[in-house]
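can u do me a favor
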């Protein structure tokens, strides 16, 4: 399949592009600025804020499916620049979905667990959304715009961890970078989430595409835990000192953009549709560790050389 991946140099985008290329797909990635070397797929530089020019470039690649990973995902940056967040997270997504619908090809829009307010947790797809930050609000509006432009699209609400090109994009990298250097760090005991390992998430998204799903899905781990517990599990698997992680409450810190506390999502819908459960957090951490042993982080960072 000729697959186009936006945001192909980001944490999910690079892992997805590599997994897809490894499965034999012909991948074209889009990047705003970053250039990469030695990658097994094509990479084009495109400004998605210029939707007309971007659509022309994408049309030239003749994709048979699009997975839209690109977004302004930095919560504090989005809070400070709501206009840019709306442009990238809503308008660009809508323009791409409209083009995919016109071309008659599948479209997966990557959304976020943060569309919920985090008061109760255990959220299902039919539960009402109530985003609390500018980032989350623009992603929620982006969902609506995509579905209006491409009713057969997949909206994948996700949260993930893994290895990135910069080595600084993931919560798991935050923990490993600091713990291996013996640095004391905070771990939030009141922030619950259901993260998937990025390569596992990539495989699930490609599977969803292959079986022709459509609609909203929570593509997350069936297991949820606090970010403090997540850090402790990483420390224990990697052989670092878990006592370096200070258990604190996120609500006790002033951290810029507002954040939801309990973002545990329920993935039963996608597990039923695919006929199998999604990987647990512990299984993802094991894969993270094995890739670390294989020097996969250095390989990714080498692409930016």
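np, heres the sequence
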């Amino acid at each position: 399949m000729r697959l186009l991946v936006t945001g192909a140099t980001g944490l999910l985008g690079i892992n997805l592009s590599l997994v897809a290329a490894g499965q034999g797909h012909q991948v074209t990635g889009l990047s705003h600025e970053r250039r990469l070397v030695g990658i097994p797929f094509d990479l084009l530089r495109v400004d998605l804020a210029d939707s007309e020019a971007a659509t022309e470039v994408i049309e030239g690649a003749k994709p048979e499916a699009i997975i839209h990973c690109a977004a302004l995902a930095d919560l504090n940056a989005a809070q400070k620049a709501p206009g840019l967040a709306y442009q990238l997270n809503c308008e660009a997504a809508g323009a791409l979905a409209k083009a995919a619908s016109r071309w008659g090809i599948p479209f997966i829009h990557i959304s976020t667990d943060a569309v919920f307010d985090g008061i109760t947790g255990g959220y299902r797809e039919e539960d009402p959304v109530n985003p609390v930050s500018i980032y989350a609000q623009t992603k929620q509006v982006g969902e609506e715009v995509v579905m209006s432009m491409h009713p057969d699209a997949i909206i994948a609400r996700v949260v993930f961890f893994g290895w990135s090109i910069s080595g600084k994009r993931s919560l798991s990298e935050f923990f490993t970078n600091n713990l291996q250097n013996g640095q004391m760090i905070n771990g939030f005991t009141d922030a619950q989430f259901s993260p998937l390992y990025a390569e596992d998430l990539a495989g699930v998204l490609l599977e969803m595409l292959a079986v022709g799903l459509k609609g909203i899905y929570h593509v997350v781990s069936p297991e949820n835990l606090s970010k403090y517990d997540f850090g402790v599990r990483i420390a224990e698997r990697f052989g670092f000192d878990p006592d370096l992680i200070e258990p604190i409450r996120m609500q006790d810190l002033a951290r810029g953009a507002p954040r939801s506390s309990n973002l545990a999502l329920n993935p039963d819908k996608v597990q039923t549709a695919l006929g199998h459960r999604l990987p647990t957090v512990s299984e993802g951490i094991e894969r993270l560790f094995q890739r670390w042993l294989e020097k996969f982080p250095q390989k990714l960072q080498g692409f930016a050389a």
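The two ends are 29 Å apart (CA to CA). hope that helps!!
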